[in-house]
Amino acid sequence: LFLCSPLSSGITGEVLHVDCGYNIMAF
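The structure corresponding to this sequence follows.
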């Protein structure tokens, strides 16, 4: 949900890369 928040729009690039990696490893 944090990624969908407008506050993360500025750092969505970095967060997405890191989050995607963790999500793939988690799932």
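The CA atoms of residues 17 and 23 lie 10 Å apart.
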